[in-house]
Amino acid sequence: MEIPDSDAERRQHARRPFRSVAVVVVSGTKQIEVRTVNLGAGGMGIIASANPKPGTTFTIAFSLQTGPKTTQRFATQVQVTHAVLARDHDGFKVGLRFVSVGSELAAAIAQYLK
């Protein structure tokens, strides 16, 4: 079995750049601010100060524009697929896979990707 060399080869959905701030909620109480990198139907990329282990699950909350002048806050559960040190980003570049996506979030992401 061949191991993919890049994030794009591992992904099942295309992603689009998405630069914002999000909040990771660990164990229901601890909140950590992260920077977002990209967003797609299947997941997103973030820059974090910590290096989470692949397979770790947590909730991430972020805002996404849902209309010309409307922004909506979403929270969804994600699972870490990989994390690598990204010195040029001053942190760890973390790939996240959505564990479950509600219909409102799925519609907002689809709109964002158009």
Task: Describe the secondary structure blueprint for this structure.
Elements: H1 7-10, E1 15-17, E2 21-26, E3 30-40, E4 43-48, E5 57-67, E6 70-86, E7 91-98, H2 103-113
Antiparallel strand pairs: 1-3, 2-3, 2-5, 3-4, 4-7, 5-6, 6-7
Outline the structure in words.
The termini are far apart. Helices cover 13% and strands 54% of the residues. It is built from two helices and seven strands, in the order αβββββββα. The radius of gyration is 14 Å and the shape is globular. The protein is mostly beta strands. A six-stranded antiparallel barrel has the order 2-3-4-7-6-5.
- What's the β-strand tally? 7
The H/E string reads HEEEEEEEH
The gyration radius over C-alpha positions equals 14 Å
Major sheet size, sense and barrel closure: 6 strands, antiparallel, barrel
What is the helical fraction, as a range of percent?
10-25%
User: Strand content of the residues, in percent?
Assistant: over 45%
List unreliable stretches of 5+ residues. 1-9
> Tally the helices: what do you get?
2
Provide the residue-averaged pLDDT: 89
Overall spatial form = globular
Which strand order does the major sheet show?
2-3-4-7-6-5
Summing up helix and strand content along with how strands pair, one would put the structural category as mainly beta
Distance separating the two termini: 34 Å
